[in-house]
Design brief:
globular, alpha/beta, five-stranded mixed sheet, 12 strands, 342 residues
């Protein structure tokens, strides 16, 4: 979705800053009370410099965001920080985040707060993205919803009303590590366990299956594109599927089947109004023919496997906010926290 920025004069105060911390980039933005965005920017995470340097630069980015949005610090009612897990949300600490090596057990919430001079609300990045979709994105029509973000792994955010399902130990929504294949020779997940959802429906899994098929001698347009210097990734697989490549189409439909299986389990556990699919791997989403085919195959798999009373009442769709969901949702969670304290 193309992000449309508004001016301070068009905005509805109070204002919030949201930060989406990733392994590659830190993205921040300023929203008003309706989730409209005044400013957005990012800078590299530079994980190798360590967590204290990261916290300092996040604080500086927050201050820059406020200034460049034309605001004074006192006009900002809250700051939200979304971070990849694992984490201790009540304690404001990272635990062992896979994408932030060397940042283990760091009290990031309080250190960022000290560097920016404001209280910070801490959240899981997938939960923040889900809240962003529910606040101003494709999830606005749902009371309860789940967002699955498909990328290197699988993120999951679960929102019921204004409740964020963080779990007792801050590990709620770690749905990528649920088991969908219990065979002894099931595919291995990046965490080292077998049969996990991520091992079948993530971008890493799709790329691995493509590599295996090509190594086995499958004829595919992918071989020519790789010889020309293209990178084997879901975007390339989507492009070749659009161009009529049978292997690429098969890989996408297989992924849809695995995703459908995972979604059925989620539906029977949470019973949400809607499930949204987002992240880097949507095969073009609604704007692409193969993306629409992918979504329809997911729905077909759900229809075949779900108990009708659940399957017939749960909407499945693509998310709308793209890479902006995380910082918008983090700002929204800061807003929610302020409302709870009022």
């Amino acid at each position: 979705m193309e992000l449309k920025l508004i001016s301070k004069q068009q905005a509805q105060p109070p204002f919030y800053v949201g930060v989406d911390l990733g392994g590659t980039n830190i993205k921040a933005g300023v929203t008003d009370d309706r989730g409209q965005v005044l400013w957005v920017g990012q800078e590299p995470t530079l994980v190798e410099r360590g967590p204290e340097d990261g916290a300092r630069r996040i604080g500086a980015l927050i201050r820059r965001a406020i200034q460049e949005a034309g605001l004074r610090p006192e006009e900002v009612a809250g700051v939200g920080l979304g971070s990849p897990g694992t984490m201790d949300i009540p304690g404001g600490r990272l635990m062992v985040p896979a994408n932030l090596k060397g940042w283990e057990y760091f009290p990031i919430r309080d250190r960022v707060s000290e560097h920016c001079g404001m209280p910070v609300t801490f959240a899981n990045d997938a939960t923040a993205a889900a809240f962003g979709e529910k606040w101003v994105g494709a999830g606005q029509r749902f009371h309860s919803m789940i967002l699955l973000t498909l990328g290197t792994g699988i993120g999951c955010g679960i929102i019921v009303g204004d409740l964020l399902l963080d779990g007792e130990h801050s590990h709620g929504g770690e749905y990528g590590h649920t088991v969908i294949d219990c065979r002894p020779d099931a595919r291995s997940c990046s965490c080292g366990r077998r049969g996990h959802f991520e091992a079948y429906a993530s971008a890493t899994a799709v790329t691995k299956r493509a590599q295996e098929a090509l190594a086995a001698g499958r004829v595919s347009m992918l071989s020519r594109r790789l010889a020309e210097g293209a990178k084997l990734e879901p975007k390339l697989i989507a492009e070749t599927a659009e161009a009529g490549d049978e292997l690429s189409r098969q890989l996408i439909l297989e992924t849809a089947e695995y995703l459908g299986i995972g979604i059925v389990n989620l539906m029977h556990t949470i019973d949400p109004n809607g499930i949204l699919i987002g992240g880097a791997m949507t095969f073009g989403g609604k704007e692409s023919r193969i993306g629409r085919i992918f979504l329809e195959r997911v729905k077909q798999e759900v229809f075949l496997r779900a108990y009708p009373a659940v399957g017939d009442t749960t909407e499945i769709d693509f998310a709308a906010l793209g890479g902006n969901a995380g910082f918008i949702g983090a700002a929204g969670i800061a807003r929610l926290e302020k409302q709870k304290k009022a």
